[in-house]
Amino acid sequence: MRPIDADGLEIDMAEEVFDGDGGYKIFGYSKRQIDAAPTIASQPNDPLTLEELRGMDGEPVWITPGGFWALVIAKADERVRLRCNDGETVWADKEIELVGPVYRRRPEEGVRRTICVIRGGGI
After folding, report:
1. Rounded to the nearest 5°, which phi and psi values hold at 42?
2. How far is CA 86 from CA 37, 97, 113, in A?
3. Of the four, 38, 44, 47, 76, which is 20 to 30 A from 110 by CA?
4. Are 26 and 9 in contact (CB under 8 A)?
């Protein structure tokens, strides 16, 4: 699978769906169109800094080594928090310090992960 720039596809496919003879060409046409679409370079998945997290309010992040998703809570003039998938809210700086790195998405296989998990209390 590869990310593509699909902005132009919707218009082109909408114009080409009906072939004028009462039939539709959506499958063959869209497959060719998608195959020809340029690949979008994905963002790097380096561990996120607190500064990067401050700009990600409401976005999901991947917490290691436990391997779970959390939502970033980043309000002006407040410490960044993470709302974990179990409902617990923790300080992002403490989570990174005590547990491990935070990523934009699940790390690829082969990324080294810490085995020991040390968790402080929630907020």
Report:
1. -80, 155
2. 39, 20, 21
3. 38
4. no
DSSP helix/strand/coil, 97: helix
In single-letter form, the type of residue at position 94 comes to K
Answer for the pair 11, 57: CB distance below 8 angstroms, yes or no: no
Q: Mention every residue, 6+ apart, whose C-beta is less than 8 A from residue 53.
A: 61, 72, 74, 80, 92, 102
- pTM given for the model: 0.57
| 62 vs 31: CA distance, rounded Å | 32
Distance of alpha carbon 35 from alpha carbon 38, whole angstroms: 8
Q: What is the pLDDT of residues 50-100, one digit of tens each?
A: 999 999 999 999 988 778 899 999 999 999 999 988 889 999 999 999 888
